[in-house]
Amino acid sequence: MPSYPPRDMSESERRRRAAARARRKRQVLRNRVIFCVVCLALIALIGFGVFRLVGVLTGGDTESGTSGQSTSQPASGSAGTSAGQSASAPASTPASEPATSGGTVTPTVAGDWLLTLVNNNVALPEGWQISTKVAEASTQKELADEAADAYMLMKQAAAVDGVDLLLCSGYRTVEYQQNLFDQEKQKWLDDGLSDQEAYDKAKTVVAVPGYSEHNSGLAADIVTPDHQTLDSAFANTDAAKWLFEHAPDYGFILRYPEDKQAITGIIYEPWHYRYVGVDNAKAITASGKCLEEYLDGLSA
What we know:
- About 40% of the residues lie in helices and about 10% in strands.
- By secondary structure, the protein is of the alpha+beta class.
- A hairpin with a 4-residue loop joins strand 1 and strand 2 (about 140-145).
- Helix 3 (about 175-190) crosses helix 4 (about 195-200).
- The N and C termini lie far apart (about 120 Å).
């Protein structure tokens, strides 16, 4: 078989082949980048799904709300107060229009839904629906939209004064409240009290399910990173003193004052604030009355 001398490659041919190789390399690199982006997106999506699933399964909250206990441990919550639940709103009605299941606005005292009374004797209006949002990024606690916006403004103002506020409990579902109440009642049963006695004791510390302000989305348990125990000693912190003075400017009132337990039926809770709107908060605070007394005066 005859042999042929190697064919010399022209300059244009060499350039063409070099360009082809470069295109292949760019295509391979592009494919790898696309593959990496898709993988990262899938990982993020799976991680978010797992996070939401864990939140649903655990009730959205793992902190204590029992008076005298650290907010970092699971336990019962104070009446309509401690140990909140980070949860999505039960419906997407605007925060300015709590509605019944039929879609009509829930009647409230003086026509102001922010003054809706919820306590041991007055249940949350049937079919109450509220839109909530995260008010505290570090704890993922939620409040009704309007209350959340007010809290965030208040937190920023406190920070300017060198005070660090922390929302440790906000909106919680009635189901979650039931679990808190059952835990508190069981403690008294274990101490030898009768079922009725245990029930009566429990409701002075944990609100009866459906009778908790936290179920409304308008109640906030506010502490400070240096004192996260829900006890009367919180009143001595700079955070509590700042709240006593400035909270009404942002629409919040101290819901369970020290000298009003006979009226509210709830122990003194210097950490528990209720959003009622700026005008209402200033009027209630100036009156020296608790919410029950103030509303009685309006309806008289």
